[in-house]
Design goal:
Layout (H helix, E strand, L loop, with lengths): L1 H42 L3 H8 L2 H34 L5 H14 L2 H12 L8 H30 L1 H7 L4 H30 L2 H7 L9 H8 L4 H28 L1
Helix pairs in contact: 1-11, 2-11, 3-6, 3-8, 4-6, 5-6, 5-9, 6-8, 6-9, 7-8, 8-11, 10-11
Length: about 260
C-alpha cells in the first residue's frame, strides 16, 4: 500500500516537473516566434509605404549587393570546406584541434567588428577597403565556418563507415575518394552548409561596415542600410528588414527540409 502511494507521489512529482519544463520551453518558443514575426506585425497598415520604399534605388542596390555577395560567399565557403574537411578528417598532426578551433569556432565567437578592423589595417593599404571585394572578404570570415563544420562532420561520419578504407584497398586515389564517395555522400550536407552560410552572410553587419563601408550600389548591404536609415526614414529600414528576414527564413527552412530528407 505504502509503495503504491510512494510511486503515485513520485509520478506526480515527475509530471509536475515535466509540466514545468514544457511550460518553460513554450515560453522560450513564444519569445522567439514573437521576435521573428513582430516586424511583419509592426508594419500594420503601412504596407503601402514599405512597398514604395522597397523600389527606391538605394534599397534595390542594397538588396543586389547583399544577395549577390551572399551567393558568392556561399560558393566560396563550400569550395573551402571540402579541402578543410578532408584535412581535419584524414590527417593527424599536432595542433589539429587548435586548427579546427580557429577554422570553425573562433570565427563564430570573435566580435565581427574586430575582424573588420583587422582587415582594414591589413588589406586597406592594398586598396581593398571600401570595395565589393571587401564585402566578400568580411562576410566570408564570419560565414564560412558553417559550411566547414557541416562538411567536416559528414566526412567523419563517412570515414566511420569504412567506405574509404575499402576504396583505398581497391586502389582508389584521393581524387577518386572525393569524387566518387565523399562528395556524392555529402551533397546534402554541403547544400545545407551553403544555405546556412548564405543566411549568415545576408545578416552580417559589423565587419562589413568597418572594412567595406556603406557606399550605395557599391558596398552598402541590407544590414548597413537598416542601421543608417532606421532613425530618419524608418519605412526604408523596415522595407529592407522585411526583405532580409523573409529571405533568411526561406533559406533556413530550406536547410531544415534538406536535413530531414537526409
Amino acid at each position: 500500500m505504502q509503495k503504491g502511494v510512494n510511486r503515485a507521489a513520485h509520478k506526480l512529482g515527475r509530471d509536475r516537473f515535466e509540466l514545468a519544463i514544457t511550460a518553460l520551453a513554450c515560453a522560450v518558443a513564444v519569445y522567439m516566434l514573437v521576435s521573428i514575426s513582430y516586424l511583419y506585425i509592426a508594419v500594420g497598415e503601412n504596407w503601402s509605404l514599405v512597398w514604395a520604399a522597397l523600389f527606391e534605388s538605394r534599397v534595390l542596390g542594397a538588396i543586389a549587393i547583399s544577395v549577390s555577395s551572399a551567393f558568392i560567399v556561399g560558393a566560396l565557403a563550400v569550395a573551402a570546406a571540402i579541402p578543410c574537411a578532408y584535412l581535419l578528417t584524414y590527417r593527424d598532426f599536432r595542433g589539429k584541434g587548435t586548427l579546427e578551433t580557429f577554422l570553425i569556432d573562433l570565427p563564430q565567437t570573435l566580435p565581427p567588428v574586430t575582424e573588420g578592423l583587422v582587415y582594414l589595417l591589413m588589406l586597406g593599404p592594398w586598396g581593398l577597403a571600401y570595395t565589393y571585394a571587401a564585402v566578400i572578404i568580411a562576410k566570408f570570415y564570419v560565414s564560412a565556418p558553417f559550411a566547414i563544420s557541416f562538411a567536416s562532420r559528414r566526412f567523419r561520419e563517412i570515414r566511420e563507415t569504412g567506405l574509404d578504407v575499402i576504396a583505398r584497398s581497391l586502389g582508389a586515389k584521393t581524387s577518386h575518394l572525393l569524387g566518387r564517395i565523399l562528395l556524392p555522400l555529402s551533397s546534402r550536407d554541403l547544400l545545407a552548409g551553403f544555405s546556412l552560410t548564405w543566411a549568415r552572410a545576408m545578416g552580417e553587419l559589423a565587419a562589413t561596415l568597418v572594412f567595406a563601408g556603406a557606399i550605395p550600389w557599391r558596398t552598402e548591404v541590407i544590414p548597413t542600410l537598416v542601421y543608417f536609415t532606421a532613425a530618419e526614414t524608418p519605412q526604408v529600414a523596415i522595407a529592407a528588414s522585411v526583405i532580409a528576414e523573409t529571405l533568411s527564413i526561406i533559406a533556413l527552412l530550406s536547410f531544415r527540409r534538406i536535413g530531414r530528407e537526409r
